[in-house]
């Protein structure tokens, strides 16, 4: 047996089975004869080793699937550019974020309410601090006035 005949069981699925160098040099009539012989040998039940026990299928081989014309027309009519899962999730995320920002600006979210409450507290604290500073300033001015009056009295009495 030559290599072309031994590997023909693996090449039955191919359109043109490979032949050894000796078979290539022969004319096309002998090539077709050797192909038919190798096919008949493998179909005859002469399996080597565990070939009959193990079904080998090439996962890289692409098998053409035939479609009917009606299926093709339907697929063309309904072919919308569907988004991938990631793109769909990203769009949903953007919509949700825009909706959240809208609600947040209106003050309807919990976080916005908390922010507004914090701002109100800070505003109140600043107003109180401003009042305290104003009072301290007035007290300092009053103390300064009293001091100057006392110094004027003291100077006025002496002179």
TrEMBL record:
Composition skew (Basic and acidic residues), residue ranges: 79-92, 128-150
Domain of life: Eukaryota
InterPro entries xref list: Casein_kinase_sb_PP28, HAP28
Biased composition range(s): Acidic residues: 32-42
Domain Casein kinase substrate phosphoprotein PP28 per the UniProt entry, residue ranges: 58-138
UniProt-annotated stretches for the region Disordered: 1-92, 128-159
Biased composition (Polar residues): 20-29
Record-annotated membrane-spanning stretches: none
Pfam families per record: PP28
Protein's name according to its UniProt entry: 28 kDa heat- and acid-stable phosphoprotein-like
Organism: Temnothorax curvispinosus
């Amino acid at each position: 047996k030559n290599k072309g005949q031994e590997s023909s069981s693996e090449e039955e699925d191919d359109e043109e089975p490979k032949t050894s160098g000796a078979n290539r040099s022969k004319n096309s009539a002998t090539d077709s004869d050797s192909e038919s012989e190798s096919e008949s040998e493998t179909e005859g039940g002469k399996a080597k080793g565990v070939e009959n026990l193990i079904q080998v299928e090439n996962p890289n081989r692409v098998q053409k699937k035939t479609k009917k014309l009606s299926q093709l027309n339907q697929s063309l009519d309904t072919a919308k550019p569907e988004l991938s899962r990631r793109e769909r999730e990203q769009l949903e995320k953007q919509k949700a974020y825009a909706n959240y920002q809208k609600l947040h600006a209106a003050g309807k979210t919990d976080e916005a309410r908390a922010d507004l409450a914090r701002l109100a507290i800070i505003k109140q604290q600043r107003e109180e601090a401003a009042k305290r500073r104003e009072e301290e300033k007035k007290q300092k001015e009053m103390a300064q006035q009293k001091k100057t009056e006392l110094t004027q009295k003291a100077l006025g009495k002496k002179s």
